[in-house]
Amino acid sequence: MALLPILCYPDARLHTVAKPVSAFDHDLEVLAKDMLETMYDSNGIGLAATQVDVHLRLIVMDTSEERHDPWVLINPEITEKSDEMLIAEEGCLSVPGIFDGVERAKEIRVSYLDLKGERHSLHATELIAVCIQHEMDHLIGRVFVEYLSPLKRSRIKNKFLKAQRHNTTP
Ligand code: NI
Asked: Buried b vs exposed e over 14-40: b needs ≥16 C-beta within 10 Å?
């Protein structure tokens, strides 16, 4: 087990489009375990492989209060989306300290594979639906701040670039 470094916005690697997972092997299990450990260590509820600079379609999540219900979703695809939307305040381990509202579908159905390559389908609402959509965006190179107004986004970008120049946390 190992903690993985998380890419920080506006790192260009966060805009990489991930490839589908094709090998369901030991390396994939290790990656999922390390991502979960990294997510728990950072008190996050979700982490996409993109954020640890691995460009495969894999996300891990745990939205339980007790924090012992780890989910691993491989090659996830949204198969149904409600017309009803909701705006929830989102944060991201790649954009630490920034929280803002993003409009998402309130309910979704997701088809995905587990670590053995077996297919499952799940219906998610509210926080879980938001989290899955947020993490799946990472897999197509999209960070949640891209939904904010250009003014907000450039403020956030400048804040993080400045912090990186001074080698401090934003
Ligand atoms: Ni995120």
From this structure: bebebeebeeeeeebeebbbbbbbbbb
Which one of 80, 89, 126, 135 is the catalytic residue?
135
Task: Tell me the CA–centroid distance for residue 133 and ligand 1, in Å.
Answer: 10
Q: Is the separation of the CB atoms in 1 and 33 below 8 Å?
A: yes
Q: What is the pLDDT along the chain (170 residues), one digit of tens a residue?
A: 799 999 999 999 999 999 999 999 999 999 999 999 999 999 999 999 999 999 999 999 999 999 999 999 999 999 999 999 999 999 999 999 999 999 999 999 999 999 999 999 999 999 999 999 999 999 999 999 999 999 999 999 999 999 988 877 76
Q: Rounded to two decimals, what is the model's pTM? A: 0.96
Residues with Cβ within 5 Å of ion ligand 1? 92
Q: Are strands 100-105 and 85-90 parallel, antiparallel or unpaired?
A: antiparallel
**135 catalytically annotated:** yes
